[in-house]
Amino acid sequence: MTLQSSALPTPASGSRQVPGAMPLVGHALQLQRRPLAFLRSLPQYGDLVEIRLGPRRAYVVCHPDLVRQVLTDAKTFDKGGPIYDKLRQLLGNGLGTSAREPHRRQRRMIQPVFHAEQIRQYVPAVHDEVVAATAGWSDGQVIDVAKHTYEIITRVLTRTMFTATSHDEAAAVISDALPLFHEGVGQRMNSPFAFLERVPTPGNRRYDAAKAQLHSLVDRIITDHRRIGTDHNDLLSLLMATRDGGTDGGTAGMTDEEIHEHVITFLVAGVPTSAAVLAWALYFLGQDAGLEARLHSEVDTVTDGGSPAWSQLHRLDLTTRTLTEVMRFYPPGWLLTRVAMQDTLLAGQHIPEGTVIVFSPYLIHHRPDLHPAPERFDPDRWLPERRQAMARDAYVPYGIGSRKCIGEVYGITELTLALAVIVRRWRLEPVPGANTHLTDPKPTAVIRPAPLMMRLRARKPS
Ligand code: HEM
After folding, report:
1. Which residue in 47, 327, 343, 360 could disulfide with 397, CB within 3.0 to 4.6 Å?
2. Ligand 1 pocket, mutate which of 273, 325, 413, 416 (most atoms under 8 A from CB)
């Protein structure tokens, strides 16, 4: 999404320390206890602010121009340092975690896998999976929407990634194991004591079992695919066919180990993010009867009671704007980092090699001078005339630069379809008193409304 050039003054020179650092822990407690409120408070101290995470100094970029500078200069600000070293141990060296050099080759090879033309072909399968995943819903039933959207998105990704395998079985394994794996990765990233991971506590055992389940499932699927040897036109077949230098022209393909790491990356990067967006969309619709009625009317009119087709998706304007606003309000990737690979200058401030730079789409999306009344959920702020006034890089839910989300088109396509398919048949009412924890959510790796209890109301007879 291209927005106008920045409406803010150019970033102020230098940096300021954020007050309130405590001995030993620095700002870690604020970040842990009320992370979103802490992030929203930072721009008042400057465009580049210094925080302390334990003994380490880190800088948070609060101005869109600085976000651009950091994210588009991967040579100076790479995915590195202790956080990514740890992530690579846990996830492997897939597209999301690799350093700049292997990443360039990987990205070149994987980009065609996510081509829009390819994603268009997945639309009927995505539709069928959402229908299947919601087939058991009944009028009046109370469901945990966060759990169900996780299952829906898992089914969708599994179906489009592994057509050859029994994707029902794969989806069931992944739905069970992925949340435990994801949670364990989050905890291990934050823990300074690696030896604790080997203590056989129930939590560690659950994590180890989930990790083993996921890895052996992915190994088995790759082996089956190789044995059958057919092109199934799914994400896995495309990964296997891609060559360095393009799908046709090049020579070297990927090893099974590389493919394995990318598949795990797609699961870890693609399921919790999209599932969170879909769940928040249903949450916000449940808060605003007027918006919900407008959305129902749009979906009914555009699809005329049938299955939404690829050619109709661009006409689902309010549906798309609602999802865009969800990703402004609660961008799933709310806190991301880079590391300075050499001494450098940022906003005139000397940044020593090895310094962690933090950027937060959430922070940028909640600056009132970039998004007026940022705490108001308002899909109409994305109407063309209002969008035009918006500053460049004021909306960065997918990041920018060479590490920008490769799943953007895939993600918005599956989400638009999934939301349309759900609201065509269902209204979801909040269960009074059950979701009070969501007025100030506490994010983990993603900002996720969990649990989210809502009552299903059938809109049309099945
Ligand atoms: C729809 C919601 C999604 C959001 C908001 C989102 C957000 C992001 C963000 C912010 C990044 C950049 C991280 C950084 O710069 O440090 C990223 C990277 C990535 N995302 Fe997504 N994502 C979404 C869906 C998906 C899906 C559906 C997939 C795959 C099926 C996916 C796969 C990836 C991968 C592989 C990367 C790493 C790209 C690279 O480093 O080259 N994402 N995502």
Report:
1. 327
2. 273
CATH of residue 26's domain is 3.30.43.20
| Mean pLDDT (the chain, rounded) | 91
Q: Is residue 418 part of a domain?
A: no
Q: Which domain holds residue 37?
A: 1-72+334-396
Per the structure, how many domains does the chain have? 1
> CA 80, 82, 83, 88 torsion: positive or negative?
positive
Asked whether the beta carbons of 245 and 251 are under 8 A apart, the reply is yes
Rounded to the nearest 10°, the torsion over CA 231, 232, 234, 235 is: -30
Half-sphere exposure of 314 (CA within 13 A, CB side): 3
Rounded to whole angstroms, the Cα distance separating 142 from 431 reads 8
Residue nearest atom 41 of ligand 1, based on CA coordinates: 403
**Within-domain flag for 50:** yes
Task: Output the residue whose Cα is nearest ligand 1's atom 26.
Answer: 270
Residues in contact with ligand 1 (CB, 6 Å cut-off): 95-96, 107, 265-266, 269-270, 273-274, 277, 327, 331-333, 336, 397-399, 403, 405-407, 410-411
What integer pLDDT is reported at residue 80 of this predicted model? 86
pLDDT tens column, 90-136: 889 999 999 999 999 999 999 999 999 999 999 999 999 999 999 99
- Is 249 domain-assigned? no
Position 279 pLDDT exceeds 60: yes
User: Could you tell me if residue 346 is inside a domain?
Assistant: yes
Question: Largest Cα–Cα distance of the chain, in whole Å?
Answer: 64
Nearest CA to ligand 1 atom 30: 270
**Angle at 109 (CA atoms; ends 105, 110), nearest 5 degrees:** 115
Q: Give CA 71 to chain center in angstroms.
A: 17
- DSSP assignment letter at 394: S
